[in-house]
Amino acid sequence: MSSDTPLFVTLTVGSLHGLTAQTPCITDGWFGSSYQYQCHCAGSAPCDTHDGTCSSGCHQDWFEPACQYGETR
């Protein structure tokens, strides 16, 4: 086999009955197409993962449109 030949591996997994998927940790508290922006919602509430809006409003010293701008003191 040459180094240019792709290698495919098939894994067989047992029954997944009763298991639930969980959101990867990296997405918690982040938003954007690649989760590149951090949420700053009041009360550490979650933000919309697509546009960053906070139903609880912005955390102190952060402001709209998606609480991504912080005031410096």
TrEMBL record:
Top-rank lineage group of the source organism: Eukaryota
Signal peptide location: 1-21
Keyword Signal: yes
Annotated keywords: Signal
Protein name: Uncharacterized protein
Organism taxonomic ancestry: Eukaryota, Metazoa, Spiralia, Lophotrochozoa, Mollusca
